[in-house]
Structure formats: structure tokens, C-alpha cells
Give the backbone structure.
Amino acid sequence: MTPVKKHVTTKINGESVEFLCEPRQSLLEVLRDDLALTGCKEGCNNGNCGACTVVLNGRPVNSCLVLAVEAADASIETVEGIAEQGHLDPVQQCFLEGAALQCGICTPGFIVAAKALLDKNPDPTEAEIRFSLAGNLCRCTGYDKIIRAVQAAAQARLAAQQSS
Amino acid sequence: MSTEVPSRSTPDASDLSPSSAAETKKYKVIGTRPIRHDGADKVTGKARYTSDVLLPNMAYGALVRSPYAHARIVSIDTSEAEAMPGVLATMTSADLPDPWDKVENLGEGCINYAHLSGNVLARGKALYKGHAVAAVCATNAHLAEEAAAKIKVEYEPLPAVTWVLDAMKEDAPLLHDNLVTQALGEESARPSNIGAHIHFEQGDLEAGWAAADVIVEREFKTSSIHQGYIEPHVSIAMWNEDGRLKIWTGTQGSFVVRQQMAELLKIPVSQVLVIPCEIGGGFGGKIAVYEQPVAAVLSRKCGRPVKIAMRRDEVFEATGPTPGSYMRVKLGATKDGKLTAGEAWLAYDAGAFPGGVIGPGCMCVFSCYDIPNAVVDGYDVVANKPKVQAYRAPGSTHAAFACESVIDELALELKIDPLDFRLKNAVQEGSRRVDGPVYPRIGLIETLEAVRDSQHWNSPLEGPNRGRGIACGFWFNAGLQSSVTAAVNPDGTVSMSEGSTDIGGTRASIAMQLAETLGIAATDVQPQVVDTDSIGYTDVTGGSRVTFATGLAAYQAGLDIQKQMVRRAAELWECDVDQVTVEDGVYRYGDAALSFKELAVKLNNAGDPIVGRASVSPQVSTNAFGAHIVDVEVDPETGKVTILRYTAVQDAGKAIHPSYVEGQMQGGAAQGIGWALNEEYFYDDEGVMRNASFLDYRIPTAFDLPMIETIIVEVPNPDHPYGVRGVGEVPIVPPPAALAIAIHRATGCRMHELPMSPPHVWRAMQDR
Amino acid sequence: MVQIFIPAPLRRLTAGQAQVAVVATTLREAIEALEQQCPGIRGELCENDGLAPTLQVAVDNRMTRRMSTPLKADSEIHFLPAIGGG
């Protein structure tokens, strides 16, 4: 009954990880249920809400739409890997200071997606931020404070770059 | 931007309000914007929601749901599923105790346990597509889904009805053979789909029409809408051999879940422990139980903890939408712009079981205006849809869409500026609502004045296909029961426990009120949401009540701590208790002065630990009003409405944490915008919802919205020491009406149906 | 006198009166006094020993379900549908 499990070697948040999974298991399921990386959330399990966003080989993806076996030899970043030892990433800090979360269920997905955006485009316009984050649904905030937090994070990162 | 409004003192000041000085006092903590206490957990992915809880030896449940909107259940055969390796248990409604026909008021509306049980698992008939009919649990979630597919249910399909007016027809298919219409004191002779008739009247309606120079009457329709929280319903039940049932769940009310579990399973409340996890949105939809009793029975059967997580399509098809509605509103006014008469006829569907939100709909429809002569009739109608649940100001948004649209037409007919017309007729202290009560001090006029004085209202809007609309909204806001305990730590910080689950930052707004009371920093209070064994009864996180009522409990717990600290300071200083004074958290006797923290450190190990407690049940509505301004551009080719600018104005009484007040206003506005422009349950002729995913049921994305400007008006609530009014619900109410009016200005078309999605707007433009 | 506002559907029990004045110091007494004047009305407003679960009462604009709620000499009583909030 139970399908034969596949052996997968991958890199998650910089660490080498091995796991066994069924071919039908999504990356989201393995991250959450087998690797206990529960920061990525399941909101729809069909790629519409973005709560499960992780960065796969440099690109933000909905981990519910990626099969775990596809993660073989890849490099994955999850929300658990974003804070550097002892201090939050500017995106996280700006979400806190800007009250850019209410219930918090979509927040990890937004943090991952926003950081991925700023890594690629350090000084995005409001329209670029809105477009990039359109795949992440938030039902609580109306997005206003999220967009402002991402703008603030961009400025903080630019300021940090200039001073270093 | 914040507008301070001096408050009039009310002659009948509440005993809850310690001093009228609250209105002018400058606060140290209240009104600031500290980082929320649970923030770091939530931005790092560490916060624990129910689906993040993994218990040892946990089993996974799945539900079998009706593919038909209405069908008799002929038979259920679970044998094939049970024979599958890894399958642990199955169940149907036969495994639930026979429900008692008991209606109970759980603080926030009432629950009929027979209906609730029948909604959890269908009895005899499936009443909507997606109605749960059986369940199974297995060693993993995939197996459970496979096993669910092996449970054979034989159905005899019946004709279904989903539109409220169709359901009211004499020859409509009946959902319940024994449902008769309840109208206070009267029951209809024959069964129908109409569960209740509500009727209010005030003054002399005929005289009101006779006094009117202009009368406008219009009809309106709205579709079912889902609360759309991003976290699906998830629960874990562990029913131990000793009879104790533990539930992990994301809920708006852990005590209300406890009560429902005890009633549905017929076990004592003391045998149920509810452990509230973080909750990923609710908006009214996470109060009633769905999967929790099923997980409990499966757990008892298989002897393991059982987790049930709904899929998104199950959330849409089987959990709380707000009703579809049909409404007729008629208003009359004199030439000089005074409303003389109003009549409303409202029919809201209740979903599969009676008891929807028609009551508040009727109470809210004219709640913003002083109308001396009015009649309201409302009908609660069952239909083959999921059981309606509360959704943010339940019933009020529909009614405001109708009433505000007619108000606008009437103003235009009278050639009076619509804002002036509203100001002229707005309710104020002393105005009597159509359902009877007289308003205490309220802030609608101040809110409308803030609109009038706003930069947005005074900015020009130019260009073709553009228009601006405004509309008002009201919600009562509840008081109900709350409990708080707070223990002073050796370092002078305070650990606070509360029973209100934190759905959007209320740990912070409650902790801030305790901090203000004690004269310490917000960061010196550590708030915890605790389980039902660890705190006194606390009603739901709903009705915009938490910052008001649980905040009031925190304030009183703070006074309790302060009293104990004074007594202990007197012992320390060897003086009388009344020789110790406290101001801004500094305790003084003669020349001696100690801050709260210094005193707490000194008192450590010097006697009884200091623990404050309070439980409250304020019997008031905090009555909040909002008004929204919106500028739109309508694409003449497609009918698509683009929002150019949006401003939400609201009387918050007193904003404890202004960022989260703004967040409620922005989030509520965004939900109202989604309701207005896109969202709808799309049913086919068989009563099947055809858009049960976030792809097809389209809630607003970041790309659909502009920034949402906010203006917080502060007319202090006389029933709260810091003046707090509920905030969360009002902002969903004005958007559909404000947008309909803006679309009218842009296109000349009056929109009488929601959603005002591109096909509907385009059609209206073709017909003009 | 305490003014009890009669919901429109119950006015058949009050000979059409929209308001009935009674002397009472608690909500319970007020409902009893109302029953004396208009027999049968109590059964529509109450269930067992308390208020019907589908109702709430506004006493001088304070919402309550407690029959022991104290009244002032000129209190206003309204019977309203029970409501829930989101």
C-alpha cells in the first residue's frame, strides 16, 4: 500500500539534510511534518495563498507545489533561516516595528517572499513590491503596513550597505 | 493622524469609569506603538498554530462530505475503509450522542445543539454540498484521505435551493420537515424554510411618508461571502482513558469550544480542557465547532490523539459564510433634508440551519440615522448552503449597502450634499434606534466631521470614468465576560494571563492597559493566552470586545495589584496604608519614593507573592461608527473598478495601540472592498459551489489595493476607564456602499447587487 | 414608572400598546408585573427561570440577560434579538 520511499539529499538553510519521502509528498509536507520546520504554513495546498513560500535555488516558490523529491541537490531557504544568530533580519524587524502582522499565519511567507524580492531588487517601487507579493494572501492587514514594512526594510538594507 | 475630541460628561456616568479625568489625561503607555509581545515568534516562524503541534503517536482524520446540495442519506458502509491497513477508526453521526433540543446563549448569539450536532455530522439528510457525513482516521493523512474515499455512502438526491427568495417560496424544497417560523409570540402553522420573522416599528410610518417631500425605494441583492482566514480549521483531540478530553485548536473562544464539546458529547465541562493555539484568522468563523467533536470521538475509538485539518475547499464548502441577502429599503425626507420615514424588508439566508444574522441586520439597517417613523421586517431563511456564521459586524454590511445607497440617492434627489445630508440626520447621544434603545455618548457626528475636514475629502478628483463615494457604518460591539490574572515577578515585571485568544495583537493592547494602570513599561508586562484550566471564564474573541472588556479586566487586575503593593509598602515603611500615595507608578510616603519596580524588588521574599486578579462582565455596547471615502476609476471596456485612493475614518474611543487600530481599519476596509468588488459564492443549478479555491474565490491581493489611509477619531467611551470602544468590526461595513456610490459617480450607473465585479459593472454600463 | 417597550409582534397581548408602565425594582419583577397586566406574555419572553436564549434585554441601554438586573424608578426596558459578533 505505502509507496516506496525515495532518499533525498538537499541543503536547507545552509545545512546538508537527508530525508526519506514518498513520491507524492510535497516539499511543504516534508518540511513541516518530517523535518519539523513548521514556519512555512499551509493555507490552501494548491499554490494560491503563498503561506508556504520558501526560496528554492534562489527563487521564491510555493512549497506546496514542489514535490519533496524535486528538492534533491537543491538549496532551500525557509523562514527559520532568515534571522542571523541573535538578531532579526531587517525585513523581520520592520514587520515588527511597522505592525505589519495581525494573526501572523501569512507572515512567514511574506517575510521569505519580501526578502527574496529585496535580494534581487534592493530598491523596489511600491508597485513592484505589490506585484511581487501578489501571490501572498493576507486577510487581516489590507497589506498597507506590509508594503510599508518592506519599503522600510529596503531603506534599512540600503543604509546598512552604505555605512559598511 | 489622530483627532482628539473633547467629550461631554454624561450625567449617568458608569461605575466602571473611575474619573472623568480619563478624557484629558495624558498617558504614558496608551497611545504609543510598542512592538507586540508575540511579534518575534511570529516573524521567525516559531509561533505555534494548531497544525504545528505534533503529538506522539498521533493519528490523522479525514471527513467524507456530501457531493449533493440536498440528499437523503440511504446508507453508509464503512467496512471497506475499516479493512484497510493503517485505518484506525471510522464514525458517523450515530457515534455522537443524540443531541438535545437545547438552545443556549453563549454570550455571542445562541446555539441550538441539535442543529450544531447535525452540522458536525449529517443526520438523515445532507443539507449542503460539503456537509460532513462520515469520518475516518488512520496512521497518516494520505491514508485517511484514501480511506475516506472508500466509505460508501448511498444518497437519494433531493431538489436544492440556494437563493434566499427561492427558499421562501411556498413550493420550495423544505430543508427541515418541522421548521416553523418563530416570530416573538407566534409560530406559523405550517413548516417552511423561514426560521424567524423579526419586526421592529417606531413612530407612525404613514405619517412619516405623508411628511416626506421625496421618497426613494430600491432593492438590493448580495451573495454569500467567506471570512477567508488564511489558516484552515485544524484541531487535535486526545480523549484519555481517564475520561479527560484535551483539545488543541485555533479558536476565537476556548471556553465556548469547551462548552460546545461538553454539550455535543454529553460530558461534564470539567472533563474538557481546551488548549488554544495561535489562531490564523477567524473574523467570526472560528467560534462554532466543526471538526473538534469528530476528532474527539475518533480519538476515543482509536486511543490516540487525532488531528483533523480541513482542506481549503472544505473550508469554503462547509464552514461559515455570511448570508446571501435580498433587501428592500425605502426612505423619505423633507425638502430641507430631514428624514421622516424609513422602511426596510430584509431576507438573509441562514445556511442549512436556522439562526443566521438577520437580527443584527435589522438592528443595524437604520442605526446611523435618526428616523422618527420606521418599520423593519427581517426573515431568517434556511437554504442548501453551509450554516451561516458571524462575519465581522454580522448582518450590518449587507444592510449598510442598501441603506447608504438609498441615503445617497435621496440626497441627490434633494440636491443636498450627501455628506451634509448625513450630518443633518446622523444619530447622536439621545437618538432612539428603530429597535428601541437610546444611544449614549457616540461619535458618528465627529466621525463625519473628520471626513469633511480630511485632506482626501477636500482634494480634487478629476479625469473621466472616476468618482468618489462615502458611506457610514455601525456596529454595537460587545462587553461580555473576561478574566485576567497578573503576578508580580521578583524583578518588578508582571506576568499576565488572559483567556482571550489573540487574533490580531490583543496581547499587546491588553498588556498595555495593565502597564498603564501600574505605571510600568509595556515591555515589563508579559502576556500569555492560557488554557481553560488556567484562567476564569472568558467569552469569545469577537464582537470587537477584547481590547474593551479584557482590557477592563486588566485594568482592574492592575488596581488589585496596586492595592496590595500599597499595603505592603505601608508594612515596609511602617506607616498606615492611607499614608502611602501612588502616582504614575511611584509609591510615596513622606520623603521615601519607590518606583513600582523598585518596590517589587524590595518586597520579593518579604511576604505573600503579589497576584492581582479581576473578572468583569460589562453589560454595554461600545457603539462604534465609521465613515469611508473612496475614489475609483472604472474601465469602460471591462467594467473593472480600480481604487485610486481610500480613507477610513472611525471613532475608536481611545486607541490603545494606534498601529493595531489602524490595522483593524485597513484590514476591515480591505475585506469590505473584496466583498464589494469580487468575492461571491458562485453556485450552479445543482447548488454546488463552483469556486471553492483562493484562485476562483478571489480575495484582494496586494496588487489590487492602494495604501489605506486612516483617521482615528477619539470620542471616549464613558463605560471604560481609558475610553476604549471596540474597533475591529465597523470597518468592513461601509466599503460596499461607498464603492457603489463611487461607481455611480464614475459611470452614472447605480449598482444594486454585490459583487460589483467586472461582468456586473460592464453589464450595468451597457444597460445605461 | 418603569417603561417596558413591547416588541411589535407581542402587542397583540398588550391590546396594541407599544409601551407598558410598571412598578418594579428588578427585571424579574418588571416581567412579573407585565405578566399581571398582560397574561401570557411572560411565556414569550422567558424560558424556565431565565430570559429566552434567543433574546437579550437592554435596560437603560445596558445589555443584559440577568433577571436580577436592578432597575431605576424610570428605567427603560427593551427586548432585542440576541446577536453575535465576528
In short: Chain C touches chain B through 31 residues (CB under 8 Å). The mean pLDDT of chain C is 90. Chain C has one domain: 2-81.
